Structures are given as C-alpha cells and as structure tokens.
Amino acid sequence: MTEGIRREDWEVLGVEPGADLEKVHRAYHTRRSLFSQSSLATYSLLGERERDEFLGRIDEAFMRISNAAADLTTAALQGADDFDVDTTLAGLRTPTDLVGDPGAFLRHHRLVSGLTLEQVSVETKVRPNVLDSIEKEEWSKLPAPVFVRGFVLQVARLLRMDEPEQLAAAYIAKMKIELGED
Amino acid sequence: MEGALGAGSFSAAAVSLRTMIDIFHEDSDNEGPRIWAIGGGKGGVGKSVLAANLGVVLAKRRQRVVVVDADLGGANLHTLFGLPDPELTLSDYIDRRVHSLDDIVLSTSTPGLHLVSGAHALLEMANPKHGQKSRILRHIQQLDADHVILDLGAGTGINVLDFFLVSHRGILVVVPEPTSVENAYHFIKAAFARKLKQTEPRKKIAAALEKMTAEQKSAGSKSARDLVAGVMAIDPEAGAAVLAAAATFAASIVVNRASSANHERLAAEMSMACREYYGIGVDAMGTLPTDPMVARSVLDREPVAAGHPDCPFAKAVRRLVSGLKGE
User: Fold this and answer.
1) Ranges of each domain in chain A
2) In angstroms, what separates the C-alpha of A84 from chain B's closest C-alpha?
3) Which one of A61, A99, A181, B282 is at 20 to 30 Å from B182 when CA atoms are compared?
4) In chain A, what residues touch B272 (CB-CB under 8 Å)?
5) A11 contacts on B by Cβ (under 8 Å)
6) Per-residue DSSP letters for B92-128?
C-alpha cells in the first residue's frame, strides 16, 4: 500500500472528502494553473519560494489521493474479497467491469495516471473529442470499429494497462452490439 | 493544527459572519446609511467611474445616495457628473468652515443622487489627522441617505485603508494587468495588516507578531493563514483574535475593462487565490466590460448609466447591484 490520504489533502484541493476522481482531477488542474508562474490572478501574491511550497502541497495532496485510487483499483481487480473500501473513498472506486463498462474503465485508468485528454491526444495523435467520446461510449460519434479498436489499444498501452487486447476486444464487442451490427 | 486552520474552517467562518454583516440595506434597522468604499491601489483603473455609475444605478432604484469624493489628494468626481467647480468641498468641512456634511452636499442631474466634492483639497488634506478622520467618519454615518459611496484615492495610505475598513462593502477595482493585480494584493495585505493593528488584544497581537518576525529573519510577507498559525503557537488568545479578524475581513473584487474570457475569470480566480492561499475571504463581485461609451461619457461629463443606460458597461453595473440582493 502507498502512503494514505490525509484529512487535509481534500481541503488543499478544495473538494469534499471522498469526492470522485474526476472532481479531484479538475480541482487539481485548476489549482495548478491558478498558482503557476504565468498566472495573472496570482501575480505578486506569492514569492517564488512560497509558490513552490504551495504547489508542492497541492501536488502531494493530489498524489496521495490518486495513489489511493490506484490501490483501490488494484485490490478490486485482484478480487480481494476482504478488501475493505473506506466509505469516504467511495468516489474513488473503480468501475471493475471491464466487459460491461469498457469506456468508464479506460477513463478511470487515465485519471489515475494523472493524464488529461489533451496529453493522451499528444501521445496517441487521436483527437481529444474522439478520446472523450470513446470514454463516454458515445457510439454514434465514433468512427468505424476498426479505427476505434486501434485507438483503444494505443490508449491502453500508453496507460500501461495489463491487458490492452482484452480491453479493445471488449470495447468493440460492446460497440457492435450497441450499433446493432452483430 | 494544520487541519484546524484549513481552507474549510476559514471560509465557513467568513461566510457566516459575512451573511450577518452583509445584507442589503433594507433590514439594517435604520442605523444609518450603507457605506460602500471603492479603492484598489492603482490610479486610472476606473474607481471614480464605478463610484459615479454605482451611484446612478442605486438612485434609479429610488435609493437616496450620496457619493463622497474621498480622493483627498486628487478629487475630480464633480467633473464626471458635469458639475462646475464647487464652492464648498470636503476641505471646508475638514477646516471647520462648515459644520455639517449636509451643508456641502450637491445635487446632480439624477434625482436622489448627491455628491460631496473633495475638489480644492490642499495637498496636506490627503492625510487628515486622526481626529479629523473620526469626525468625517462620524458625519458620514449620520448622512441622511440610504447609501454612501466613498470614492477613495489611489494608494494604500492609512486613511484610505481606514475608510475602506469601516465600510460595509469595500470594493477593489482591478484591471487585467499585472501592475493592477499586484496593487490589489498589496492593498489587501495592507488592509488586513491595518485591521490587525486595530484588533484587540492589540498589545498581545503586536508582541506575537514581533516575536514571529524576530524568529524568522528572512520571512517575507506572510499569508493570513501563516499569521494565524504563527500567532496561535505563541499566544492562543491573540491567535484566536487574529483568526476572527481573518474570518471577518471582507473585500470585493470588480474587474474593469475586461475584454476576453480570461479577463471574465480573473475576479473568481483572485477570490480563490485569496481564500486558498492567503486565507481571507475576498469575493468576486463581478466584471465590467471594455466599453467605448465609458470614455465618451467622461468627455460628455455625464455618467454612462445616466446618459446611456443600455450600453454594456451600464448593464454590467446594474448586474453588480442585482447580484447583491438577498445574498
């Protein structure tokens, strides 16, 4: 297990304890850009050292929360029956059903990795809106399955997921059923 | 320790105290007018233009309004209202040539809106003595009006800060430029420091602050959050008082001359930075757009909300006021 979440981590990020991972991410990115060197809104409010310290606190809080989320995912995937999910961490729980919710599964792994859609897009050359539609399973907005399969594979590999092939297959199977092609 | 001083406890305390203090004038059992102060540190950001137009907007809501040109060094609000050089001004009052502020109140072309001019003030009037200042404040609180709007000068002089701190709502006008943002934060820090100087137990707080400075020679300007933690560690009683001062400190940011989506976000971002980093409540009151009608209205010597009530700037000032109702 990694270092546990501290009570003040949620406060540092300005979210409710146990907020879901997507909110945590949004809060983190908002604060990161608000307190960055180039931000007009915090110009001269913090000295250089204070800025580094403050950003360090934000980074650490975020790291502890997302590590805990990753631990939850691992434990859940290993099917640990006695795994006790703290109720305050309910929002961090992973959708474990890779076959039933492949899009949500992919999204969760991306969020745990700390990557934005834009960052994934830079690495994979798949446009952010397409990535978003893949995660949300917006079937009608997606290109043909053969392309989608390749995209899902690329993303899963980028995120170093355990079984990219299996996820891509599950995704395409669901896509074809939803589109009535099977 | 850390947890007790987290963002949550600060803002919760600030919000509950604010709602107690900060209610639109109707309820305030006639304890005198509601006082607005408009500052912001930097010159030329639109403080006087906002003061004038805020006055017009409130007066059009059938409120009795007095705008006081408290820019004692460089008053020119009368010009924005198209009034001639006034014969009697705040300086006559300070010098006791007239005995009541009511004697120097001028009418404007907007019914219900009056002006106390600060024109002709001598240079030394920018720094009235303590007794003079209390007398001005006392009389302001006795003015027969629903709202008094104080147009403060630039800078962060003690008198500017004191007028700001006694107001029910202190507004900082900011334009989307680093220099203006810097001045606004300088103003906020100076106003909070001034508030601490007036907070009891004064001697204990001062002693704790001195000890903190002595112990950390290199420490720069500390955030309110750090001050609370530091003072609390030295003297819990003084610490509690500093915490209360931080929780009751209130200021509002208005971003003027906004011309992009980034500018629209600036007030909310500054508010968040003050709350989360600095540890005091500064709310985002709103945003006023860049509007060529404003410059024209200055040349026409008529507040834009009076002459061109449908232009974007005038509408935005009305939204500022509407946004306050029932808060």
Assistant:
1) 7-92, 102-178
2) 25
3) A61
4) 14, 30, 34, 41
5) 3, 6-8
6) HHHTTSSS-GGGGEEE-SSTTEEEE--TT--GGGGS-
Whether B262 contacts chain A with CB within 8 A: yes
Cis bond leading into B201, ω under 30°?
Answer: yes
pTM value surpassing 0.90? no
| A102-178, CATH topology level | 434 Repressor (Amino-terminal Domain) (1.10.260)
Contact A39/B269, CB-based, under 8 Å? Answer: yes
Beta carbons of B273 and A41 less than 8 Å apart: yes
> What does pLDDT average to over chain A?
84
For the stretch B242-290, pLDDT in tens is 999 999 999 999 999 999 999 999 999 999 999 988 989 999 999 999 9
**Interface confidence: ipTM more than 0.85:** no
B201 at the A interface (CB within 8 A)?
A: no
The SS3 of residue B305 is helix
CB-based contact B185 A11, cutoff 8 Å: no
C-alpha neighbours within 13 Å on the C-beta side of residue B319: 14
User: How do the domains of chain B map onto residue ranges?
Assistant: 3-322
CB contact residues (below 8 A), chain B span 267-296, against chain A: 269-270, 272-274, 276-278
Residue type, B297: S
- The CA-based angle B77-B101-B168, given to 5 degrees, is 70
The pLDDT tens digits of the residues spanning A48-101 come to 888 898 899 999 999 888 888 777 766 666 665 555 556 556 666 655 666 677
Task: Evaluate whether A151 touches A136 at the Cβ level (below 8 Å).
Answer: no
Residues of chain A whose beta carbon is less than 8 angstroms from a beta carbon of chain B are 7-8, 11-12, 14, 30-31, 34-35, 39-47, 50, 54
